[in-house]
Design a protein that fits this description.
Layout lengths: L4 E3 L2 E3 L4 H6 L7 E6 L2 E6 L8 H9 L6 H8 L10
Antiparallel strand pairs: 1-2, 3-4
């Protein structure tokens, strides 16, 4: 159990590490959803490599110039768990 804590003009809660791990909330953005019973916290799942092969081909052929493609290619957040 936890209590709301004043943080500036807002309030926050401290979530114990085991609960963060169990709910898959570590190192991710969190979406808030107000329900009739309270507040639901959900991790935002990013699909940064979706359609990467088509995006690279389009980018290299200059049919499509989209800086977001380059940002996705340079996003190494999904490599943090790898052991090198």
């Amino acid at each position: 159990m936890t209590m709301l804590t004043k943080i500036g003009n807002s309030q926050g809660i401290r979530i114990p590490k085991p609960i963060i791990k169990q709910a898959n909330l570590q190192n991710c953005e969190i979406e808030f959803e107000v329900t009739k019973d309270g507040l639901l916290l959900k991790p935002i799942k990013k699909i940064s490599r979706k359609d990467w092969d088509k995006n690279i081909k389009n980018f290299l052929s200059n049919k499509q110039k989209d800086e977001a493609i380059l940002e996705d290619l340079l996003d190494d957040n999904d490599l943090e768990e790898w052991e090198w």
